[in-house]
Amino acid sequence: MAAEVIPAKIRVASRRRRIFLENFEAYLFLAPALILIGLFQVVPGIAAFVMSLTRWGVIYERWAWFENYAAILDPSGARFGEFVNALGVTVWYVLLTVPIEMAIALIVAFVLYQGTRGRGAYRVVYFMPYITSVVAAATIFEWMFDANFGFLNYVIGLVGVGSQAWLREPRGIFQMIGSAFGAGLPDSFAGPSLSLVAVSIFTIWHFIGFQTVIFLAGLTNISRELYEAARIDGARERQILRRITLPLLSPTLFFVGIIATVGAMRSFSQIYVLTNGGPLDTTRTVPLLIFHTFFERTAVNGIGLGAAMSFIFVLIIIAITLFQFRVLGRRVFYD
Amino acid sequence: MTRTSAVPTSRSRPLNLDKIGPSLAKHALLILGAAVAAFPFYWMITTSFKEFGEAAKSPPVLWPTSWHLENWVEAWQYPHTLWANAFANTIFIASMTTLGELTTSVLAGYAFARMRFRGRGVLFALLLATLFIPTEATIIPNFVLMSRRYLGWYDTYTAQIVPFLVSIFSIFLLRQFFLGLPQELHDAARIDGAGHLRFLWSIGLPLVRPALVTVSLLTFLNAWNAFLWPLIITSRPEIRPIQVMLVQFTTEGGSRYHLLMAGAAFVILPTLVVYLIAQRYFIEGIARTGIRG
């Protein structure tokens, strides 16, 4: 009743006021998060590009347009060689870790999923490496990979293989295997160094549990009725695996594949602790190269070059992710 | 995961691999895998208690003939290491980060789930987009940002805490949980005159407690394991966290592996104990969000 007496103008005004207050309160709730994200993620993201266009070592020198990019991407540029080498190492690192991690994690998840006795306990143990600090766990592996007293040399000794230098071994594994069988391989087919293989072994160990848990969650989400129905129709277990489980798991496989690839490309701590990019730069992936460029050579334009490298690297990561989306994403089955 | 306590019959099994591979082989495989996963921890502990000569023995000694607890004391008091200091630093930094991140992400997660405001959809999409700004790109500008010329936080605790007071993953996780609360609850509270803050504090938070535990544990763990950023942004040993201290220790300790393993145990054991107690929250939190460190 009272509302009829109030002129329409005032009513609209009070409604506006309420909406304004509601908005104001919501933005107050969001403010801390938004300010922090803006200051430490968005602004630096843009600043990275601006800085890559400068010469900037210990102090800012001058605007340099695309000089840094030229130094990295031009085959005659000063930084071309080391950047291409780092990219090659990064690609090998991804190839040595991601497929093996995923295959093992998938098998473990399958086996655990069937209601194996002690599933909970297995899951706890498999997940243990993932929650331990990369730095500390890498310290243990450095000890197990030790060239003189390491546990791994003892293990391969049991099957008759001679001691290896592991993390200190720059020779390519294809070349090493070839020469063990008396076949000399040219340097261009040397393959990734044994030290990179050792780093990859650590990475696989560390991340298996993570992937197993995600795969298990994906398997648990598949409706049990589908299995029952297929079994009533007389489907064999292999058929069920191929026609039901794998297609319905494909979104999870796709997700893990992308996350694992990007994660491997961006790995830093384990490589820093285990080899710091050596021996002979055979484990120097792009993040390590960026770190070295930026940190150990700040005197010579480290910030400008480092920013340019990271910008190029980010573009490469995005390109690879998009490629995975286009090529693999098409095969993903969403129900 | 804990639902299937009874042994399922063959028919109710969703995927029966028994017909593909026999059960014994399956368990052998699982035990072998578990042994590989757990062995480094075993090797760390046993090596840390061995005598120097025994640690470097070939073939390796699987079980120490005598236990040298004094190794841990020696590692703890090793020259130029400030373990007690580093632990205090890490606990302080991780606690502050966890408290702060919990606050910012509860507020933001709640706002995105439960409040109506202009630009909500756009803002949420933008937040998703920032997930694609990788650390590689931002670490150098952030380093510059911390320098004396801008914020002046180089070599401080502030630099190790403030940038981590927000996590987009935590915002998402909490938003999911707040979305799951029934609308009637919210309406009832409003009719009784409770504002957003009041509703959040006395009804919302108690109901999303599992999510709060998960976010806290994962944030604390991430802060505990932080390495690259503190390595870059600090130089005074007194304010460095344990991960950086461990690397410094391993560099100075050379090949005295029995001591190095004691140092690694200092860093690993606390998280391992917490994990074993609260493993459900860790595993389910990660299965839900897919955070990969």
Describe it for me?
The complex is a heterodimer of chains A (335) and B (293). Chain A is mainly alpha-helical and 335 residues long. Chain A has 2 domains: 2-43; 70-331, Orthogonal Bundle (MetI-like fold). Helices cover 71% and strands 2% of the residues of chain A. Chain A is built from 14 helices and 2 strands, in the order ααββαααααααααααα. In chain A, helix 2 crosses helix 14 (302-327) and helix 4 runs antiparallel to helix 11. The radius of gyration of chain A is 27 Å and the shape is flat. The two termini of chain A are 54 Å apart. The relative contact order of chain A is 0.13. Chain B is mainly alpha-helical and 293 residues long. Chain B folds into 2 domains: 21-68, no CATH class; 83-289, MetI-like (MetI-like fold), CATH 1.10.3720.10. Chain B is built from 15 helices and no strands. Chain B is globular. Mean pLDDT of chain B is 86; it is low at 1-11. Chains A and B meet through helix 2, helix 4, helix 5, helix 6 and helix 7 of A and helix 1, helix 4, helix 5, helix 6 and helix 11 of B.
